Amino acid sequence: MPRLQLGRVALRRHRDRAVRSAGGSVSDTPLIRAAEARDVGAILALMRELAEFEKLTHLFVATEADLADALFGERPAAEALVAEHNGAIVAYALFFHNYSTFVGRRGLYLEDLYVQPSQRGTGLGTAMLRHLAALAVERRCGRFEWSVLDWNQPAIDFYEKMGATVLPEWRIVRVTGDALETLAGH
């Protein structure tokens, strides 16, 4: 059984309809598909680009082995979509399920959405978010959530235009490294 419930046919139909209505050619449009093991290196390279954009390369320590295990290991922790254009991976979305005790359902949490600068403004980010939203609905998720850096106003504007609400009253709480070890009592 494929890990993504919406397959390539549904993705192609969405892409083809959007491209034709815009007067474009389907062959020039990126194909959004479920990531495969062969994509790990390309996804990791895009993850590094995202870290550079967010000015967080000093925190980036992920390896191909880490990502391969997270996506395709014995107990996958996440899933990913990629967008392929002219044989190259130009965007990715990495996501996983969480659970809301208030809603009483699992949710879909988008860890990363990254589109290379050359592909921005083409509708690719919108198409990937729409696909993930459809996946959340199909999987009966009560929420589709993600975080955005407070200084990334273009992304905030884009998300709000898509119908998302930025929750100013919530803050991310994180424990990592030595603090995690201390909290664990080690």
Strand content: 15-25%
How can the largest sheet be summarized?
A: 5 strands, mixed
Percent in helix: 25-40%
Radius of gyration computed on alpha carbons: 17 Å
Sheet/helix structural class: alpha+beta
For the secondary structure, the number of strands is 5
Nearest-integer average pLDDT: 88
Distance between the termini: 40 Å
Keywords: Acyltransferase, Transferase
GO molecular function, one term: N-acetyltransferase activity
Domain N-acetyltransferase: 30-178
Pfam family, one: Acetyltransf_1
Structural features, described:
There is one protein chain. By secondary structure, this protein is α+β, with helices and mostly antiparallel strands. The protein has 6 helices and 5 strands, in the order αβααβββαβαα. It has a 5-stranded mixed sheet with strand order 1-2-3-4-5, sandwiched between helices. Strand 4, helix 4 (124-138) and strand 5 (143-146) form a beta-alpha-beta unit. The chain is globular and about 55 Å long. The N and C termini lie far apart (40 Å). InterPro entries: Acyl_CoA_acyltransferase, Diverse_Substrate_AcTransf, GNAT_dom. Pfam families: Acetyltransf_1 (PF00583).
Question: What's this, in brief?
Answer:
This protein has 186 residues and is of the alpha+beta class. It is built from 6 helices and 5 strands; from the N terminus they run H-E-H-H-E-E-E-H-E-H-H. The protein has helices spanning 8-21, 40-53, 64-72, 124-138, 153-161, 177-183; strands spanning 31-34, 79-85, 88-100, 105-115, 143-146.
